[in-house]
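Look at one record.

>
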Amino acid sequence: MKKLICFLLVLCSLLLTSCSSVVGEYQLIERPEINRSPLQGRWIVTSVQTRADDARDLQAIVGSDAVFAPHSAIFASQKIIDPEYAVKKGKTDYLMKVGYNKTKDDVGIAGDNLFIIDIYQDDEKLFTVYREKDDVAYIDIYGNLLQLVKTKGSLDERQLKNLMEQAEDHRTYYSRGPGK
């Protein structure tokens, strides 16, 4: 009987100490940094897929480069330093209907789902890119969709530095609604 009482006291002691409230410091968990861009590599604008009703002439940027890296991005000779990438996934038909009043077949997209990648600099939204496959994406410029095709998987530091030196700080192109 004494052994049973002793055992119960030890058990209660363990339970009470393990269930005591934690008082003191706690650690905040920071958002993980993406080690590579969700669009990593060099792309080329191949065509204008859809036109908005008030479309500007975008043929001038067909053939332009788009380069995406973790700490820099270039689109049509304009550079973005330390871009932030926000990635979501959505249904292609829904995104095309709401954003462009088209179906995925009208736009020429085969996939049922798209990755939506918003690109920000200093909390300002610059571009929205819809990635269909690893090597095909669509960038929204003023409510128009332009097709991007990947030409190179990644660039070394020297190549990226040279491209960034040639690019301009001036912003010429934006997505439909620049801002937050």
Remarks:
- The chain has a mean pLDDT of 79.
- The chain is about 20% helix and 35% strand.
